[in-house]
Amino acid sequence: MRVSYGWLSEYVDVTGYSASDLAEKLTRSGVEVDIVEKLNQGITNVVVGYVKTCEKHPNADKLSLCTVDVGKEEDLQIICGAKNIAAGQKVPVAVPGAVLPGNFKIKKAKLRGVESYGMICSAKELGMNDRLLPKEIQEGILVLPDDTNVGDDILEVLGLNDEVLELELTPNRSDCLSMIGTAYEIAAILGREVKLPLAEVSSSSTIAADKISVKNLSPENCHHYSARYIEEVSIQPSPLWMQNRLMAAGIRPINNIVDITNYVMLEYGQPLHAFDADQLNEGHIEVRLAEKDEKMTTLDEVERTLEESMLLITDGTKPVAIAGVMGGANSEVQAETINILLESAKFSGSSVRITSKKLGLRSESSLRFEKEVNPENVTAALNRAAVLLSQYANGKVADGIVEELSVQNPATNIEISLRKVNDYLGTDLSKEDVKHVFDRLHFSYTETDESNVVVHVPSRRGDITRDVDLIEEVARIHGYDHIPTSLMVGVTTPGSLTKEQKIRRAIRRILTDEGLHEVINYSFTHPSQIKLFPGMYAESKHVKLALPMSEERSTLRTSLIPHLLDVAAYNNNRNQADVRIFETGRVFLTEEETLSRLPEEKELLSILLTGKRETAHWSVQENKVDFYDLKGHVETLFEYLGIIGLEFVSASPNGFHPGRTASIQINTGEQNIELGWIGQLHPSIQQEKDLEEVYILEIALEEVYKLSSFDIEYVSLPKYPAIGRDIAIVVGQTLQIGEIVNSIKETAKELLESVSVFDIYTGEKVSSGKKSVALSLTYRHNERTLTDEEVTELHSKVVEEIEKSFNAELRK
């Protein structure tokens, strides 16, 4: 919004404050002023002149020799090269000694042997925005109205002694999209009164309702439609002062009718539109929604195809305007227009916004309607425009307003307490201080008790709907600089991670420290990937996306392994066969064929190893990764997380090698909790992915979070010596060694400090279907030294139990 300082001063007394002062105060109160533009770009000694004579230059075909009266004793002889110069015109004249924009100084000169005492100026040479002027004026000297006084300072005549404040308004401050709204803001800041323009209509004997009629068929989109009838208007240029103010606001003057509607729009913030009443069907106005593919040509001579959601102004037979956006070419005011139907309405902001966006057509009118205009200004602006039309277009205003009102606008009353104001602002304002702010804002109020006030918010401030909005107004007008600075008071707590966050970070740190790389894949996958490797949740249904980015990413994953395999294959295809990667992420599960609720989410940890354990080196034998590398990562991780009772039990889940896979379980003493699976990838999938032996692991982290503990237990170093015994036994080849270890622990109980397997042998020296297992046992008592006899007796019981339970043979 461009606000003229000179125009603004008509509504509020700004004596003692320059345009820059007002810009500073507006910005400090929350209405940012982007720039303050001086319209005078360095003009001095330019006056109004009257061209008495205009003759051809004796020595140049394209120059004219003019005699110009500039209000002094002697006329000036000036040579002019403009094509539109003519005798009888009033024009801006830069007399000798004048300065034009760009520090261009005017001196006496001789052109083709003839002396010239000054310069007749164009709008561009005066630094004006000539794009806002008619094309014929852009290309020649500026011709002033006939009633302009000769000798007057051109700065006063063209309003170039003015300054313009350009406001950068936030969406909620649509009240400042008008001169009066801005005047209320300035008045509140300065503590002064607002002087509203007079709008007393002198009506003729003609009755408006006899000439025009209004019918609103879309009350939800048009809340109020009012119209006046003005007859016998005279189409001519608008007064120069009005043109100057329109151009200062960035609007091009057209004629007195259109200029008055634009002027009142800038003044009140209420868009108006003038129809040629004789072009309407019997003066009828009908507000309705457009029909499908209905067409109309707007004022910019563009034929537009309309949609059914767009609100139209019609005359009952044809559309004559797109409501709130732009008028139609078939009813515009032209030089021959005699009678005017003047429209003022309150259209729904959302309706105008949608229409404007769909048509790609924005105007000063739509800008204001989109942000909702003040409903109380509909009639006030209509009357103001009618007064100006009678003054400057010689129009006769018919008696009465023809209107339809479909939505009443209830008053906004908000109760506010002094205590809440001071609590929010950290101030110690009195009730009189707060009331004084509302007085300056021109908000009326009613006192309910000693500390509470009910504020009656005027309709021009539609942004104020709650008590906190009023508190903001108190802060703005009282002055942000006057709000005391104080330290925040409250209980502070140090930030920390949740247990789950700590565990996730620990998993990443430990696995990366052990040489693995973390990968992050899409949560979306192809259904064939799920079918290839269903993972831990094979029974889950597929969750399909409604609008997938591609077929490859059309389904939510149920396992992390398929994408890890894709990463391994991608690296293998680029000669990087040694891959050690992991990922933590969520999978999505449902039992429904068609979703009626959100899918269940499970967080998993998956690891993939393939290729060599270490790169080839003369000092290290080249070995490939195997099951035990992966098992070691799990044991290291669980040891750090404080999870005890880790067991690996043989299993054959889908997608895994049937003989090289185990279930990862935690024995709590009361139950075995299955966390996931570890093992070699099934050979058929390996072959499909064109990979070497791949070892994979997938664990559900939900139970890991529950079982983990970061509590550290300190144990003193043993004071008494340990006694070791080794044992080698021959058992069935299918027997799981974990069963033997558990049997030893149950038999030896607390005197057994550790048991470990240090050799497994199958070969010629062992019978077919048998294997030899060598174990090392360590015995220790925490409070005394064990005797050799005690250990021998206990060890004998252990051996006896193994032989009995597993049909084992002691190997000599």
UniProtKB/TrEMBL annotation:
Cofactor: Mg(2+)
Keyword entries, A-Z: Aminoacyl-tRNA synthetase, ATP-binding, Cytoplasm, Ligase, Magnesium, Metal-binding, Nucleotide-binding, Protein biosynthesis, RNA-binding, tRNA-binding
Gene Ontology MF term list: phenylalanine-tRNA ligase activity
EC number: 6.1.1.20
Residues annotated to bind Mg(2+): 463, 469, 472-473
Positions of the TRNA-binding domain: 40-155
First and last residue of the signal peptide: none
Cellular localisation: Cytoplasm
Comment on bound cofactor: Binds 2 magnesium ions per tetramer.
CDD domains per record: PheRS_beta_core, tRNA_bind_bactPheRS
Major localization listed first in the record, in broad terms: cytoplasm
Domain B5, residue spans: 409-485
Keyword field contains Acetylation: no
Catalytic activity: tRNA(Phe) + L-phenylalanine + ATP = L-phenylalanyl-tRNA(Phe) + AMP + diphosphate + H(+)
InterPro entries: aa-tRNA-synth_II/BPL/LPL, B3/B4_tRNA-bd, DNA-bd_dom_put_sf, Fdx_antiC-bd, Fdx_antiC-bd_sf, NA-bd_OB-fold, Phe-tRNA-ligase_IIc_bsu, Phe-tRNA-ligase_IIc_bsu_bact
Domain FDX-ACB residues, every copy: 718-811
SUPFAM superfamilies on file: Anticodon-binding domain of PheRS (SSF54991), Class II aaRS and biotin synthetases (SSF55681), Nucleic acid-binding proteins (SSF50249), PheT/TilS domain (SSF56037), Putative DNA-binding domain (SSF46955)
Domain of life: Bacteria
Keyword Nucleotide-binding: yes
Stated family: Belongs to the phenylalanyl-tRNA synthetase beta subunit family. Type 1 subfamily.
Subunit structure: Tetramer of two alpha and two beta subunits.
HAMAP family: Phe_tRNA_synth_beta1 (MF_00283)
NCBIfam families linked to this entry: pheT_bact (TIGR00472), YtpR (NF045760)
Name the record gives this protein: Phenylalanine--tRNA ligase beta subunit
